[in-house]
Structure formats: C-alpha cells, structure tokens
Amino acid sequence: MAWIPGGTFAMGAEGFYPEEAPVQKVAVDGFWIDSHPVTNAEFALFVQETGYATVAEREEAGRPPGSMVFVQPPGPVPLRDWRVWWELRPGASWRQPFGPGSDIRKRSAHPVVHVAYEDAAAYARWAGKDLPTEAEWEFAARGGLEGSQYPWGDRPEPGRANVWQGIFPWLDRSEDGHGTTPVGAFAANAYGLFDVVGNVWEWTSDYYRSGNARFSEIGPEGVDEIPQNPRVDSPPGATVWSSRVVKGGSYLCSQGYDHRFRPAARQPEAIDNGSCHVGFRCVRRPPQNAG
How confident is the model over 13-37, as pLDDT tens digits? Predict the structure, then answer.
C-alpha cells in the first residue's frame, strides 16, 4: 500500500460530463491505499480462505449465475443503446471472465472483475481494510497534480493507460492489449499508484449522487466551508440509491466515445452488478481517521 498524506484539492471537473461538476474544494485526511487494483491471485486467496461465493456465482431470486460481458460488434453500430455490446452471460464470473470455457490461469496478475459491491466490501473486511470514499480515491488518483485532467497532465498521451484505441465499440487496434492488462503494465502516478485510470473501473463506498447533490447532506463544513472527509453513506433519497460511485474508467473508455479515463470521471454502478470491466482497490485509515 502507498501512504497518501492527505490535503485539500479541487474535486470534480468542468467541460466533460455534468455529473462531474461543479469543481469543489474538498479535504481528506491521510490514508494508505493499494498501489494497484486487487488481482485475481489476491482475490483467489480470499476465496480459498473463506469459501466466499460472489454475487455472479449465486442463483438468487430465480436469476441464474452470470454476469455482464462486453461483446465486440463486427462493424459500426448505433451508440444510443449500450445493450448492443453488452450481454448478460450465464456462467460468467471472476473465475470465468468471458463465460464457460474461459479461465484466469494466465491472468493471475490481472485485476479481478465481475465483482459486485458486496463482493468488494467482503474482501476489504477480510483484508482488514475498507473501500475508499470517492474523495479519497480521486485525491489519490490525481497524484498531487492539482486540476490536471489526467494523472500525468492535461494531454491524453498514448501508452499511459489501458484504454480503447480505435472506434468504439467495433474497432479496437489493441495496441495495449485487448481487455484487461496485468497491474503495473503502465507507469504509476506520482504517489506510486498503478492503473488509476483505464484497465478497470473501481468501486468506492459512496452512494451515487450527481454533481451539486454529492455533498448536500454532509454536516457543517467549518469556517473555510471545505468539506472534510466527505462521504455519501446513506441512500440519497429520490436518486438511484442502489448505485455506488465507480471511478477511473476502463479498457473500454475512449476519447471518441466515453472520455472517462480521468480521475474526476465518475458514474453510477448498481450494487448488485458485476461486469468484465469493474474491479476495486482498498484503503486503510489510521485509527483516528477510521469510520
């Protein structure tokens, strides 16, 4: 894990997606965070020691075991309906990321995927850790670069992260590999964190609210009116309370379609949903900051 010293930063972004705005000054205390997303090998050890079965591996409410898998169309398709390139595939799970017949024997260093929120939270408890808040995650991902669009600066430089290269969703030049890549395959940010953008989206503990509503129920903000260690840890009323925030984008993000491989990028993810491009990393807070 890497120690993040904490501090105040400008959270969010303008000019991309409305749910990232407005930019707001936020403060976080120091914490440790995993230097890379949890890998298949690490998750396998957790399962071996606990016998845990993920949401995707269970049959619940008449729903057969399975998870969402990206299916690359053979040619151009309308971009209005994501169901064209996503398929709920029976049998898909962290053990079989592409469904029956696939496995992770050569993917031990890849991020674990097909993990729902409760799966990530269960792993974190087992490891004596927590899932990061959105503010902690974004602060760490920025690597100390105040206001930059990416962890390395303001330009989307090729070779910096595992993202879609080509025309989404049908043409992938695969210059950085197709699908997930092993953690650490790309340079770390200034805090020593790998894969903070691209590769896999990462769960945070915050319930999803859009833009201005993010911290609307946080307590008094203090004399400087800067939220301290903000978190959205209760169902946000009329919004989709069953969604948590995921951060960082994935290998399916591209400049031309889904420009979300940035620290400020955020989107809701249903808590009972696992897919082939969502993973997580954990944090550990000093005792005085835990909670």
Answer: 998 999 999 898 999 999 999 999 9
